[in-house]
Design a protein that fits this description.
Helices cover 42% and strands 16% of the residues. With 217 residues, it is of the alpha/beta class.
Length: 217
Amino acid sequence: MENNLNDIKDIDYSLYLVTDRKVLGNRDLCKSIKEAIQGGVSLVQLREKDLGTNEFYKLAKKIKKITDEHDVPLIINDRIDIALAVDADGVHVGPDDLPISVARNILGPNKIVGASTCNIEEALEAQKQGATYLGVGAIFPTATKSNTDDVSIEDLACIKKAVNIPIVGIGGINEKNASKVMTAKVEGIAVVSAILGKSDIKNAANQLYEIIRSSNR
């Protein structure tokens, strides 16, 4: 049940921000996301594993207002119920979440369903089940997520060639190594601390934006 990509708007995956409030410290998440978007972030994933449903819903509503104002898609990590409740643009699911095919059936053809993969077999299966895009990694060591599989730049390039849906590299990507990831001809990079962990969030996002833009020339 491969997804009909013509039913989904043209998404810019180039600079994909995944949230983590622990990285922010005492700084406000909403304000930080707005600054990141102003710096060039093209897509936001709200990832809140430790929040209760009501808190997550209220936060998602606030973030959705910001992303709507800037015409940036909002993806909800794992929680399809929250995505539906706030009319987010889609969800991102991992191997321990609901199957991609189930998420696709619930959300329908016009929502984004992203999936985490780390090899060609998983990537092909995710595409078959209806994934809109794939987050592939971890490309480099990362402190924001444990128990990740290692994926080399060469592996990333092979996965990119094997599927016909967009690929986003994820895992330990920052301003020092982002250009290496883009050599795999992927559609973008997903980052957490490389933006939210910096003192000047807008500038950090803009720096990555410029690196990606230069890589695509």
